[in-house]
Amino acid sequence: MTDCFACENTNCLIKKNLKNPKIEKYIVEKHNIKCKKAQQFIMEGAPAHGLFFVRKGQVKVVKTGIYGREQIVRFAHDGEIIGHRGFGAGKNYPIGALAIKETFLCNFTNEVMVKMLRDVPELTFDMMLFYSEELNRSETKVRKFAQMTVREKVIDSFLYINRKFGQSEDGFFNIQLPRKDFADFAGTTEEQVIRIISSLKKESLLKSKGKKIGIANISLLKKEISEHNYFLDS
Amino acid sequence: MTDCFACENTNCLIKKNLKNPKIEKYIVEKHNIKCKKAQQFIMEGAPAHGLFFVRKGQVKVVKTGIYGREQIVRFAHDGEIIGHRGFGAGKNYPIGALAIKETFLCNFTNEVMVKMLRDVPELTFDMMLFYSEELNRSETKVRKFAQMTVREKVIDSFLYINRKFGQSEDGFFNIQLPRKDFADFAGTTEEQVIRIISSLKKESLLKSKGKKIGIANISLLKKEISEHNYFLDS
DNA sequence: GCTTAAAACTGTCTTTTAGCAGTTTTGAAA
DNA sequence: TTTCAAAACTGCTAAAAGACAGTTTTAAGC
Predict the structure, then answer these.
(1) What DSSP string runs through A5-60?
(2) For B48-107, how does the pLDDT look when each residue is reduced to its tens digit (9 = 90+)?
(3) Which residue of B has its CA nearest to A133?
(4) How many structural domains comprise chain A?
(5) Alpha helices in A103-149 (DSSP H)
(6) Are residues B126 and B152 in the same domain?
(7) CA-to-C1' distance for B189 and D23, Å?
(8) What is the pLDDT of residue B134?
(9) Nearest to residue B157, comparing CAs of B135, B133, B179?
(10) Which residues of chain B are within 8 Å of residue A89 when distances are taken between CB atoms?
(11) What is the pLDDT of residues A122-155, one digit of tens each?
């Protein structure tokens, strides 16, 4: 079993609370899971069997929407929590989750998790703040979806991907996503994404080569949406 | 000062935790506030000075959006929390809040609130679950905004208002909102809301008289959006 | 019961976006 | 290197939604 003490994900809430000796008897209950590329490890609607932490990898969180359309709720990578909403309210996961590339996960069952939270209030407090931040992000996203044009939403998605995963030296994102995924994340169609990519290329704000996409001029791209959107930060 | 022990809001998280004697020294620090109709008690962007609970009344939570458009984030009434996002992440309120009619509020400063949470882990746990549910609702709303038509979003808003505030004997909602507010909540324009109201009246799904709106046929109205939206519940 | 400003409503026009039907390109596997 | 299915792309059309300019109705105060 992987050792939390040796783990490098300092943003992980478990890692942050390791100094508390009470936590030790719970982390030995942790399960390690390895997912291949494209493998789904949370099924939407299935009974919740606990919380996942991404030890290393890339994950997308999806939700089946209206007319069977897929909505990508968020992306996650090292140290982040997945499946935190199968917790509390319902007994079933409201979302699905799948690995974008080979991913290593840590899993705690709901029982272990609840016991741990009851026993380590600092962890509960951190979890509460985590939810609070997620809520912030989500409500900002509601506003974006309610008010941005498709072009703005797509640009915003690129900026999000860039903030989250960054670009490598060749100037392309450190994550490979098909156009359809950008559409499902931005809340539009594949065709619109394609059209917007090509017009952004013409304006030298974006670069792309095959599947790969990268930002060519970040400040100008930000300006495209910041003109009228002063404080959108999620 | 109003007495939490005499309060009837059983859904209030403070009320739920009154059995814990540790909480008593914090609830004496509570402030009572009375708001007139249309009075704003949280300013968007202002430094957060604590958490509010609605003791009695009706509140709308708003956020200034793109091009100065207003987005109504949610409505709240007796027992509900307001301003919980000035907590944790930022020091400023990301939202504004104002009374729809005369409203009585309970207010705890951030310092008192944090001390209370540190001292009463059960309250922190409840707060965590509260945030989790809010997150659920918010993410469902993202999906709605991404995928529903304007007509569906407006109908969905009426159903939400009905679930939350109900109708009185005369068959109209127990809350009076101008068309503009429905538009700001549903993420569309006033004109669209008006058009949709009038077509829903023709179809005998809705009734309205002046400002007042009510649902005439709830099951048929639900059917209008449930056809393709199996599990939208927020 | 008048008066009047605000809110509700209506018709028309324009823009935006989605959907469809195809063609071209890409990149992985034989 | 060739093959071929999937992904990316393009042009066209229809539908949805927003914006504008006005008219009508409402309800609150005199």
Answers:
(1) GG---TT-HHHHTTTSGGGHHHHTT-EEEEE-TT-EEE-TTSBP--EEEEEESEEE
(2) 989 999 999 999 999 987 777 889 999 999 999 998 876 765 688 989 999 999 999 999
(3) B89
(4) 2
(5) 110-119, 121-147
(6) no
(7) 19
(8) 92
(9) B179
(10) 129, 132-133, 136
(11) 999 999 999 998 998 999 999 999 999 999 999 9
Q: What is the model's pLDDT at position B234?
A: 47
pLDDT-derived band at A89 (thresholds 50, 70, 90) equals low
Contact B67 A228 (CB under 8 A): yes
Which CATH number covers residue A201? Answer: 1.10.10.10
Q: What nucleotide is nearest B191 when CA is compared to C1'?
A: C9
Residue B234 forms part of a structural domain? no
> Could you give the C-alpha distances from B100 to A86, A226, B140, in angstroms and in order?
34, 32, 25
Taking CA B137 as the corner, what is the angle to CA B134 and CA B140, rounded to the nearest 5 degrees? 150
Residue range B8-42, pLDDT digits in tens: 999 999 999 999 999 999 999 999 999 999 899 99
Length of chain B: 234
A94, A132, A229: residue with CB nearest B136 = A94
Q: Residue A232 has what pLDDT?
A: 46
The predicted-structure confidence for A45-68, as pLDDT tens digits, reads as follows 999 989 999 999 999 999 987 777
User: In this prediction, what percent of chain A has a pLDDT beyond 70?
Assistant: 94
Contact flag A87-B132 (C-beta cutoff 8 Å): yes
Give this prediction's pTM. Answer: 0.91
User: Burial letters for A151-168: b for 16+ Cβ neighbours within 10 Å, e otherwise?
Assistant: bbbbbbbbbbbbebbebe
Contacts of A155 (CB under 8 A, 6+ apart): A196, A200, A221, A224, A225
In this complex, the answer to whether residue A38 has its CB under 7 A from any atom of chain D, a nucleic strand, is no
Q: Is the CB of A117 under 7 A from strand D?
A: no
**Where does a domain end: A136, A163, A192?**
A136
Please give, rounded to a whole number of angstroms, the shortest distance from the CA of A109 to a CA of chain B. 17
Token output for A87: 């917790």
Percent of chain A clearing pLDDT 90 (strictly above): 80
- The per-residue pLDDT for B231 is 47
Q: Name the residue with the least CA to C1' distance from nucleotide D7.
A: A178
Domain range enclosing B57: 4-134
